[in-house]
């Protein structure tokens, strides 16, 4: 009987993780990011936008304990599993995937630190510069980075408005993107 209960808890947590990750991916795929705000609509550009939304989720749960911490880890694991799958779909072989995953993980965790400092300081200009450096490094100026930085601060506030129980039932609420027909 206890095995059945443990299995039910694992299945429930898996469904919560799947729901949270699906919402993160949906938020990262909003058309406005790519059309109006000029995030590159490339595999790396999509990785960057997914990283932004993973950052927002993980930043909300930083310092969490217990079930929330476990869910945050499971969502992170799902993210890297998804990155691994995407690399393989792009034709990268078994020997090249671990090296690329390691590089993308360094990039991801570097972004978490840079974005986190700017968000904690509520420094929209520093956040916009970090976004430009990471998402559009080839351009000296990316004016739309200010729009994205503004959105990130609003999304951060929206996520902080959610209680942990809502997150543990699989509900996220990112800020709306003005002028975008997509909703979370």
UniProtKB/TrEMBL annotation:
Boundaries of every Ubiquinol-cytochrome c chaperone domain copy: 36-174
Pfam families (alphabetical): Ubiq_cyt_C_chap
- Name this polypeptide is given: Ubiquinol-cytochrome c chaperone domain-containing protein
Note the PANTHER family from the entry.
UBIQUINOL-CYTOCHROME C REDUCTASE COMPLEX ASSEMBLY FACTOR 1 FAMILY MEMBER, UBIQUINOL-CYTOCHROME-C REDUCTASE COMPLEX ASSEMBLY FACTOR 1
Matches recorded under InterPro entries: Ubiq_cyt_c_chap, Ubiqinol_cyt_c_chaperone_CPB3, Ubq_cyt-c_CBP3-rel
The family note in this entry says: Belongs to the UPF0174 family.
